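Box 3.1. Reading complex inputs
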Amino acid sequence: MIAPDWSGGLGGGAVLGLAATLALALDGRIAGISGILGGVFTTPGDRPWRLAFLLGLPAGAGLYSVLAGGLPQQLAASPAVLVVAGLLVGAGTRLGSGCTSGHGICGLARRSPRSLAATATFMGVAMATVFVFRHVLP
Amino acid sequence: MRTWLTAFGTGGLFGFGLAWSGMTNPARVLAFLDITGDFDPTLALVMAGALAVTFPAFAWILKRPRPLLAPAFRLPTATRIDGPLIGGAALFGLGWGLAGLCPGPAVAGLVTGAPPVLLFCAAMLAGQWLAGRLSGPR
């Protein structure tokens, strides 16, 4: 087992929770990234809010990178795997109405049974996928 | 202008939290999903840190008649745990396990300018579009 990053994990998680709380308290929105992204094309009236939120994501990560002196981003997957993974993540989050943020952080906080079912499903399938590709196939 | 600013601010805070928690690093996410290998529990701390804020905060906010800056809350209305929810979550989990990227960290991770992340995001948008075409408008 790798030693967890206690301060970054709990502190960063609390910041995510605060951001989701502000989105709900100020603008009445669920901070679900796949939904905000998908809506850019399907609900044009909302576009400025969605684009501003999405622009904020790399801006905030960039601010952290400047303060911390870098942003580790180790991505081992080949281009072909990245395309397949991206298509699956895009299609899956559209069909399943959410991702780690919308179902995981916001939906669970709303005590939504749908979000609990979705979160258990994508966590379980992702763990099974890693198990197969790291420990069964090689 | 005001919604634009709050959206950028909350998105920025969200991106900062993703970066601080290490979730913009796919290797770290895959290590969490690799429960039988070199397991890294940090992602569980991130969820715990986020839910520690959103669980009490959402309950309190949703008792209010409306958000501070918008006329009404915009919340998901579906309640049924159905095929698209579980099937979509499973597809998402498969893609997440393949690359270690989910929508938030992928968009926030664009700040590094790494071509693989850009490729993943392009495929993710294509996947959302394809699923939208196949399942009809949401």
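In summary: The first helix of chain B runs from residue 2 to 20.
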